Amino acid sequence: MTPARSSAAGALPAAEHRHLIENALALYCRAMDEHHAPAAALLLADARLHFKDQPVRAGAQAIADFYAAAFQNPAPTRHLISNIHVQADGLQINYLARYQRWSLAGTQPACETIGDYQGLFTSASGRWVWSEHRVLQY
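Given the sequence above, the corresponding structure tokens read:
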């Protein structure tokens, strides 16, 4: 999930930063759509999770418990992300992306939520670690 940083280069090139963030968000959206709390917890195991107006959660177990409770409604969904902005600054990568959550429960897909994902990856022990993830809803 988190690639090693190149010791020769000292940092990932900009395209690789974007690739890291896009893949991480795609895996997160997949975990949301599959209602897979353990996958979400694995992705965010080292992160602080800020979800809407809920208390901040940290640690794999707290995050897994949160998503397990949130996934009580098994209605099928699809999360879409767009407008991804990636800003790398030394040992940090910040991101901001728009998201939409679509319900597939009815006869026609329906957009249920629009918001932003905002977060941070930091370098630790030569690897990029997902350190913060915010889910902001309009």
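Strands lie at 48-51, 57-58, 77-89, 92-103, 110-124, 127-137. Try to locate this feature in the token string yourself.
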